[in-house]
Fold this sequence. Notes:
By secondary structure, the protein is an all-alpha fold. The protein has one helix at 7-62. The chain starts with 6 loop residues before the first helix and ends in a 16-residue tail after the last helix.
Amino acid sequence: xxxxxxxxxxxxxxxxxxxxxxxxxxxxxxxxxxxxxxxxxxxxxxxxxxxxxxxxxxxxxxxxxxxxxxxxxxxxxx
Length: 78
C-alpha cells in the first residue's frame, strides 16, 4: 500500500521538476544562440576577406591607395 506524500514533499518534487524543465529549455536556447553566433562569425570572416580583396584590388589599380571622402558619395541633390 502506497503512503501519500506529505504536501511539502510534493511541492519540492514539483519545484525540482519545474527547474529541470527550465534548465532543459535554457540549454536548448544556449545551443541555438551558439549556432547563431557561429554562423555570424563565419559571415564576418567572409566579409573581412571580401573587404581585404577589395582593398587589394583598389590599391592595385592605381598603385596608391585612393583617399575617398564621404562627401564624394553624396548624391547630387545635396
